[in-house]
Design goal:
Length: about 350
Amino acid sequence: MADSDRLEAGVEARKEREDWERFGARLGAIQENIERVIQGKPREVRLALVALVAEGHVLIEDVPGVGKTLLAKALARSIDCSFRRIQFTPDLLPTDVTGVNVFNQERGDFEFKPGAIFANIVLADEINRASPKTQSALLECMEERQVTVDTETYQLGTPFMVIATQNPIEHEGTYPLPEAQLDRFMLRIHVGYPGAEAEIGILATHGYHSTLDEIGPVADAMVVAELALQAREVHVAPTLRRYIVDISETTRSHPDIYLGASPRASIMLLRASRALAAAEGRDYVVPDDIKELAVPVIAHRIIVTADAAMGGRDCGWRPGPSALPISTWSRWVWRSCRSPRPCSCGGAGPGCP
């Protein structure tokens, strides 16, 4: 190879490395801005940003008062794009979400009035409090990024992301999300209680006023769209694609699992792994990316059998993924799945039967 060819190849490699470092810096700036509001939860914030860049949707599920809605609002405020909040209630109608054709007396014909779903980031707060009829209004929006009303199809903007919240403890007056709806969410995130030091920091900042009003956008919709396009270029080796399929197949063949992961789950895991690798400044996926994302991506798509639930084998505790080899870790994915009833030990950990 001539010296000029070597020089050109070196320049090109350095440029590509700088592009991925710039990707990580841009996403890091958004994360730092969100963490000014959501303290002590860097992993949960990073997962939400991974879903944003991977063009997926997020279901935030946890007990009241841990910052589910605040996380969604902080993410929306960190990006200069359109944002709508839908408070899901039992009397909410599908047309409130998607829109409706209204007769215009001056023009003498019908005109379309867009619903709240026509925004870049949509917060579906307490999504399980709406009826299944209203919940199903999101199916086409989340999967195909479009809305069809009276045979007319309207495209949604780019980026488009639905962030839904729900309380898994309270069941009165709620409607469980159907499997088709859950399968549309790329990730399910549990915020959890903050640590003692983080909660002290929360008292010092949020004790007087909400810091949400103090943050502003650090990126715009165009930047997010560019990051999403760049994340698609991340390389995934054939062996890692096979690893993803092995994880999904394990959930389908396990005797304690009634409903395993679908091919959509494998696609979501692949896309999320690419986004996480790009967030780390890499243009290639490593096994640890897949191991870190497998549970948030797959667990909410799985249902264990009644026998497994009665036997207490639906507990969410598992050893740390980094402590297990690839061939062993995939067997633990099913332990974080859903079941017909809550786990008898509440996911306490090593004390789980």
